[in-house]
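Lay summary. Proteins are chains of building blocks that fold into shapes, and those shapes determine what they do. In this project we predict the shape from the chain. Here is one chain we studied, written as its sequence of building blocks.
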Amino acid sequence: MLKKRSPIASPQSRNKQNVRVNVCVRVRPLNNLEKRTGQVEAWSIEGKEIFQTYLPWEEGKSKNGRDGPTKKQQAVNFRFDKIFNPGESNEDVHKHVGTTVVDFVMKGYHGCLFAYGQTSAGKTHTIHGYASDAGVLPRSICLIFKYIEDQPDREFVLRVSFFEIYNEVINDLLAPQSVSLRIREDRKRGVFLQGLKEEIAMTPKQVIALLHVGQSHRHVGRTNYNKTSSRSHTVFQLVVESAEKKPNARSRRSCLNIVDLAGSENAVKAGNRAKETGYINKSLLTLGHVVMKLSERDSGHVPYRNSKLTRILQNSLSGQAAVAVVCCVSPSSKNLEETISTLKFASRAKRIKASVKINYDEATLLKQYRNEILRLKKEVAELRMDKGDPKPSETSRKLSIDIEDHDDIRERNARIDQLTRAILKSSKVLQAGSSQVVNEVIRQKVDKGVISKDEATEIKKVIQKAQLIWTEHLQWRILAYLQWEKLKLLGLGRSMKRLAVRAR
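And here is the predicted shape, written in a compact code that computers can read:
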């Protein structure tokens, strides 16, 4: 009897991965206020488990008049993928959750990472950090650019946006004048914000500077929990487009969302900010309800539209993204109820599963930039032909300089330069290729007796030093300068001396 042949997986199914939400818990140390008011640590951590050790009913009789706990007063314990104790840093958190999500995004999958927990539990510290201990977000930005540097066969375009949800109103943090943004949806993009400003990202410093600008426009305020409490949810969005460096290569388009949620809080403890607290708690309650529905086998209707937060996160929560959740909790005995609530949310989130796939899109900005560069180069070549210099050479250098000063050519070259800088690529290929060219020129100069071997060795050292300490854009300028100098029979040694002075 013939055996049935197993079905061959389609290309679409091979691009899919079944993943579950990566849930971890971060316990901060007791703060000064909690220590001054005599609060004690209510939890202990053993590996991947967290145990309730503070039992309030042991301090006296329970409310029903009997000794010992009632059924509702039983101590609880939870188990998660990872539990960070108070002594662990943002670097430890990033290694466990940030690197995994970034890896998914750079391979073409959507990714989402968010911090959840009560006010003053350490969410903003985890996401943003500070100078001496950068948070998950700035570390992820640097990791993305490192990934680009390690992919010499691909080109990338990055787009950044940053917005907040304050009292159920969406504000653009990179364009503060843009308020009350509207949520839209289409088949290709899914859920998106109409009119949201996007910046083309070219360096980690630029992206982190945009992050700081956005943070300065975020709504914060004083509560009874802390002096600068986040009063809005923020979403940092980074769109990654990439394609191989070959004609007609398919383009990937993925999106990374890093969400810093405002903290859930007791309206009485929050002070005189009842309206803000009400909006925050309502949106977080909806998020909890959505997570609960998604964690059930037969979830039925999922109420994404009940709040703007869950509506915006619909693409991520509905199984289209690799999701990581950092639940931040206070160890304080006074915050026992809030901590238990956060840990229950984390337990439900852990049961959510997703089937993510690589996202291909032919209408990417990267493809548009490539096509525009080719068109502009063709136009520049035609303009040069019209001006009487079909092929600039050493003998027609003076005429070439005059032609390059022509407004039409100058404008097109400036646009080509702008687009080329917007398309990110590894500098490893540039350095390797240009080093081979320069080494060959140096060898020829030594063979002809133009420079000595000692001079050649010194020249190579200067080149290596320049490549290490100059930025990629300036490296382009240096190497272009060297390419021009190699055309001069006696200019190589002098140009290297000038370069050595500049490199010092």
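What the prediction tells us: The chain has 17 helices and 21 strands.
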